[in-house]
Amino acid sequence: MFTTSDPQSQSNYNDIATQHVHFDWTVNWANHTIFGFATHTLLVKKNHVEKVVFDTSYLDIKGVTVGGTAVEYSVKPRHEVMGSALVIPLPSPPVSGATLEVAIEYSTTDQCTAIGWLEKEQTAGKKFEYLFSQCQAIHARSLAPLQDTPSVKITYSAKVKSTLPVLLSALRISPPTVSVHNGKEVGKDIVTYEYSQPVPTPSYLIAIASGNLVYKAFTTLTTGKEHETHPMAKPWKTGVWTEPELMEKAYWEFSEDTAKFVATAEEIITPYEFGVYDLLVLPPSFPYGGMENACLTFVTPTLLAGDRSLVGVVAHEISHSWFGNNVGNADASHFWLNEGWTTYSERIITGYVRGAPYRDLAYIIGRGGLEEDLRRYQNSPRYQRLVVDYAYGEDPDDAYSRVPYEKGSNFLLYLERTLGGLEVFLPYVKDYVNTFRGKAIRTGDWKAHLFAYWRQNGGEEKIKLLDSVDWEAWFYGEGMDLPVDIKYDTSLADVAYQLAEKWDKSRSTEDVSALQFGAPDIASFGSQQIVVFLEHLRTFDPLPTTHIDHLNEVYSFNTSHNVEIRFRWYALVLASPAANKYAPDAAEWLVEKSGVKGRMKFCRSTFRVLHQVNAELARKTWEENRMYFHPIARRMIDKDLGLSA
User: Fold this and answer.
1) pLDDT in tens, 201-237
2) Which CATH fold topology does 494-640 show?
3) Smallest Cα–Cα separation from 284: which of 394, 152, 130?
4) Which regions of the chain carry the CATH code 1.25.40.320?
5) N-term to C-term CA, the chain
6) Parallel, antiparallel, or unpaired for β 296-299 and 276-281?
7) Numbered ranges of CATH 1.10.390.10 in the chain
8) Each residue of 151-205: pLDDT tens digit?
9) What does the alpha-carbon distance between residue 341 and residue 327 come to, in Å, rounded to a whole number?
10) pLDDT exceeds 70 at position 645
C-alpha cells in the first residue's frame, strides 16, 4: 500500500522523503523572482540511500548543503513535462529511519509556471503590483525544489520578506493579521512574514500571494459536538482577504455562507483540522474558480455576482479540506478521489444549507459540463475514464476536465443510493476520512476500504449490492454515457426545461414580434435555473438569428453580471447561425476592461468555440491580451488555438 511511484515525479521519495521544509524567501519585485533557501528535513526509508532527488522546473540552483556541509550536486537535462531532476549525493549513506537536513539555495526564473506576476494596472486598485501562485498539478517544482508529488505530504514553515503584504497557505505567526503590514508603509518598507503549516499536505498546496491586501473576519460557527472528543479537532476562524477596492463586495458576497459551509461540513464529516479557513479574492487572471490551498482558499473574482448565487464554489473548496488536502490521491491517475469526492461532498453541504432539491439541480448542471468534456475527448477516449493510467512523464494538465469531478460524484451518488441512501452512507464517509486521515491513496485502496466497511457494517446483504456494481465500467469506461442511468429530482429544473421547449417551438413563428415572451418569464428563476434553461436550449437545433436576437432583447443575457450565465449565453449563440454577429461581443467579454476571464472553465472553452467561428478574431484577441493571463492558461490556450505543439 502507498508504494507505487508517481509517473509525474522524478524524485526518489520511496527511498528518502521530505517530512518538513522551511522556506527563507525574499520577493524581488524588480525582476519578478523569489529567491532564498528551501531547507528540507528528510526521513530515510531504505538502507544505504546514496542520493536524494528533487523535482525542479526552471529554477536557478545556486548551492546545496547536507547537514550544514556544502556538497556537489547535478541538475539533469530538462524533461519537457517533469522539468529537471536535482540530484544530491549523500556523503555518508544513512540507515533507514535516520533524518537529515538538506538546504538548497536557489531562485525562481522568468519561466516559472507557478507564479503569475501582475503589473499594478492589472489589479483592482492599480497602485501596487501583485503576485499569486498556482501549483496544481505539478507546478510547485517551479516555485521551489521539492518532491513534487501528492504521494508525499509535508509540513512547512516560512519567513518571507516583501514590501507588500504576503499570504501563504498556512497559519500566520507574525506580524498579526490585524496589522497586515506591521505598521510600515505598503510598497516601500520591507516586512518579514512568518508562517507555519503544521498539518501535512501535498506540495501542490504550497501557495503564496502578495499585493495590497487587507482582511475582514466573518462570524465563526461551530457545531460543538465532536470537538470535545475528536483527536484532530481544533477551533477555527474564517474571513476574507482582498484588495481594499474589492473588500465591500467580497465581504458581502461570502460573509453569509462561508462559516455555515464549514460548520455543516464538520457536522456531516469530521471536525475541520486546519485552524483557519480564509478566502483570498484574486485578480481576474486567476485560472480556476477556486483553489483549495490549505487555510487560504484562492477564489476568482468572477464569483462576485452581487447576489451570492455563485458561492457554491466555496462549498467545493471547503470540502477539499477533507478530500484532497487530508485524504488525497497519490498521483494524478486517481485525481477523482480528490475531485469526485469533493464535488459529492459540496453538493451534500449545499443541500443541507439550501434544501435537498438544490443538490440535484447541481448534478443536472454538472451533467451538461460532463457531456461537453466527454465530447471534447472523443478522439482521446482514455481521458474519458474515471481512472486515467498516465504514462511516465505525461502532462496531467492535458487531461484536466470535469470528468473526474462529475463522473466521480455521480459514481458516489450511485453507490449512496445503492447502499441505502444518504443517512446510511454518511457514517461510511466519516469512517473513510478517519481511516485514511493524512494518507495519499489510490483507487484500489479506496475500494478495499469500501468493501471492508460494508462487510463489517452491513454484512453479506451490502456486499451483494457492491458485487453488483460494474467496477470496470465505472473506473475505465469510455464514451458519452455513465454505466447506469442516474435520475435526479427535476423540481427546480422543470420550469427551465419548459421555457426552453417553448423557445424551440417558437421557430415556426417567423415574425418574432408575435411571440409571447417577456422578462417576467425568468423573473422568479434563480441563476442556476437560467443556466439550466440555456443549456437545455442548446440540446435543440440552433434557433435562427431572428430568434436569437429576440431572446437577447427579451432577457438581456449579453449584459448579465453573472459569469455562469454569460458563459452559457455565448456557448449558445456561437453554435447558432448568429455566431458571426455575436463573435465580437464574446471576444470583448473575454478581455473586457474590468479584467480578463482568466478562469480556464470560461476562457478556454469560449476561445475554442470562438476560434471555430472566426479564427482570425480569436487569435488576434488572444495574442493582444495573452500577457494578462496566468502562465498555465497561456500554455493551454496556445495549444487550444494551435499556436504551439
Assistant:
1) 999 999 999 999 999 999 766 555 555 566 666 688 9
2) 1.25.40
3) 130
4) 494-640
5) 38
6) parallel
7) 336-476
8) 999 999 999 999 999 999 999 999 987 777 777 888 899 999 999 999 999 999 9
9) 10
10) no
Instruction: Provide CATH code, domain 336-476.
Output: 1.10.390.10
Strand partners, 214: 242
Distance, in Å, from the CA atom of 598 to the CA atom of 116, rounded to the nearest integer, reads 11
Helical H runs in 471-578? Answer: 471-476, 494-505, 527-537, 545-555, 563-573
Q: Is the pLDDT of residue 413 over 60?
A: yes
Known binding residues: 134-136, 287-292, 316, 320, 339, 599-601
Residues of the chain with CATH 3.30.2010.30: 213-326
| CB environment 178-207: b (16+ within 10 A), e (fewer) | eebbeeeebbeeebebbbebebbbbbbbbb
CA–CA distances in Å: residue 578 to residues 223, 347, 536, 552, 573 = 53, 36, 18, 12, 6
Amino acid sitting at position 241: W
Q: Please tell me the distance from the alpha carbon of residue 635 to that of residue 320, in angstroms, as a whole number.
A: 26
Q: Which amino acid is at 67?
A: G
Q: What is the CATH number of domain 8-176?
A: 2.60.40.1730
Does the pLDDT of residue 644 top 60, yes or no? yes
d(CA 429, CA 316): 16
Q: Which residue of the set 243, 253, 266, 317 is catalytic?
A: 317
**Residue 232: what pLDDT?**
64
Q: Which residues pair with 3 in a beta bridge?
A: none
Q: Report CA-CA distances (Å) from 542 to 364, 569, 605.
A: 21, 13, 19
Catalytic pick among 106, 344, 405, 628: 405
Catalytic residue status for 195: no
Q: Which of 417, 389, 400 is nearest to 475 (CA)?
A: 389
Burial class (CB in 10 A: 0-12, 13-18, 19+), 350: buried
Cβ of 47: how many Cβ atoms within 10 Å? Answer: 12
> Is 405 among the residues known to form the active site?
yes
pLDDT in tens, 141-153: 999 999 999 999 9
Query: For 29-60, what is each residue's pLDDT tens digit?
Result: 999 999 999 999 999 999 999 999 999 999 99
For 164, phi and psi rounded to 5 degrees? Answer: -125, 150
What is the spatial distance between Cα 621 and Cα 615, in angstroms, rounded to a whole number?
10
Half-sphere exposure of 385 (CA within 13 A, CB side): 18
CATH number corresponding to 213-326? 3.30.2010.30
Residues forming a β-bridge with 166: 210
Coarse DSSP helix, strand, coil percentages of the chain, rounded to the nearest 5 percent: 40, 20, 40
120-124, 352-356, 559-563, range with the lowest pLDDT: 120-124
Could you give the CA distance from residue 611 to residue 418 in angstroms, rounded to a whole number? 44
CB burial of 514-523 (b: ≥16 within 10 Å; e: otherwise) equals eeebeeebbe
Q: What single DSSP character describes residue 352?
A: H
3-state secondary structure of 599: coil
Quick one: cell of 144? 521551489
User: In 3D, which of 341, 123, 145 has the Cα closest to residue 244?
Assistant: 123
- Binding residue positions for a peptide: 134-136, 287-292, 599-601
Who contacts 98 (Cβ-Cβ below 8 Å, separation ≥6)?
43, 44
